[in-house]
Design goal:
14 helices, alpha/beta, elongated, binds S-adenosylmethionine, 15% strand
């Protein structure tokens, strides 16, 4: 068996819930040569089997070999911030947290309110900026500015536009769009995120903030919205959520108005390579009861649903398990 085949076997055993056997296969690969990726897989199998200290050691070794192994960073963070507290280990009070793509309590999932800036930033960008993201705000702003380029190129905002930023988070995308449009409405289900965004955007006079209830855009009823976007928000929605939100967007958009959103796309998903999918799957294998932060839907089905709601819809881009979808109200 080649190393690749052995690795595939380990992954399959893991996904069947046979963690001990999976761990053995990964250990055999490690005996023939260490790599950050296999240490991460080995540690995941230990975590799934409930051997949390070994798992921690494995993730740490994965990070020693490659400090940029984002999957290992995420997994270690999940372990430290989520699993250890559940096992009754001592952690600071703010550690009852979530990780990008893994578990959150039903309450957190409902209102997305987190205790402090750090937790908000973890929910926003995962662990890509380390364990103290509040110290790296300039880098995060720059990352978000680059992320918003597709949206900026697609929406072609003008001073005549009345724009909806749905799920505005910390306001990092709104910082880029606000100077380009006439009026910007930042809506979010989370009071804490809105507070962060308000601070972030205090020098922009054309931005208004509205806390919204789930799938309720009534605060925009008389606003004549011409364009809108939701960046990294529909990735958290199941198909029911998407139907409810698209119906609302349809209602508040002016005729001819457009709305762009990114979503996780099962049509272009590689279940073996996508790091978020793998992390969520590993979490799901361990605990099927708590809600997870990330959802996958077929972009093709999402477009079909949008059309049934009345939109013209098309996938502008698809790849790596994600898609950008543009809908237009005729
Ligand atoms: C990953 S963040 C993205 C924030 C921002 N769009 C960005 O790209 O920086 C997801 C945001 O969606 C918001 N959110 C999650 N579920 C929501 C819902 N059902 N309705 C409105 N906002 C929601 C969260 O509070 C959070 O601000």
């Amino acid at each position: 068996m080649t190393v690749q085949e052995q690795h595939q076997l380990g992954v399959q055993l893991f996904e069947k819930g046979q963690y001990q056997q999976a761990g053995q296969v990964f250990a055999e690969i490690l005996d023939t040569g260490e790599s950050s990726e296999i240490w991460n897989d080995w540690a995941s199998a230990q975590a799934a089997a409930g051997r949390l200290e070994e798992a921690k050691r494995g993730f740490e070794r994965a990070l020693q070999l490659n400090p940029n192994n984002r999957e290992a960073v995420g997994n270690l963070a999940v372990l430290v911030r989520y699993d250890l507290p559940r096992q009754g280990k001592t952690l600071p009070p703010d550690s009852q947290s979530i990780s990008a793509g893994t578990a959150m309590t039903a309450e957190m999932k409902r209102n997305w309110d987190f205790v402090d800036k750090r937790q908000l930033l973890f929910a926003l960008i995962g662990y890509d900026f380390g364990m103290e993201p509040e110290t790296r705000l300039e880098e995060i702003r720059e990352f978000k500015r680059r992320e918003s380029q597709f949206l900026i190129n697609t929406l072609q905002l003008t001073p005549q536009d009345v724009v909806l930023d749905l799920g505005s988070g910390c306001g990092f995308i709104a910082r880029v769009t606000a100077p380009l449009c006439g009026k910007l409405y930042c809506l979010d289900i989370s009071r804490e995120f809105l507070r962060f965004a308000q601070e972030e955007l205090q020098s922009f006079p054309n931005v208004e903030f509205h806390r919204m209830e789930f799938a309720d855009l009534h605060s925009l009823d008389d606003k004549q919205v011409t364009k809108g976007y939701a960046n990294a928000v529909f990735i958290h929605f199941n198909l029911f959520d998407i139907v409810l939100y698209l119906r609302e967007v349809y209602r508040v958009l002016r005729s001819g108005g457009i709305f762009l959103f990114g979503t996780n796309n099962s049509d272009s998903l590689d279940i073996h390579r996508d790091r978020y999918f793998r992390i969520v799957l590993q979490h799901y294998v361990r605990d099927r009861t708590s809600p997870t932060l990330m959802q996958w839907n077929s972009a093709c089905s999402v477009c079909a649903i949008a059309r049934q709601i009345g939109f013209e819809a098309r996938e502008l881009w698809s790849g790596n398990g994600t898609a950008m979808i543009l809908v237009r109200k005729p």
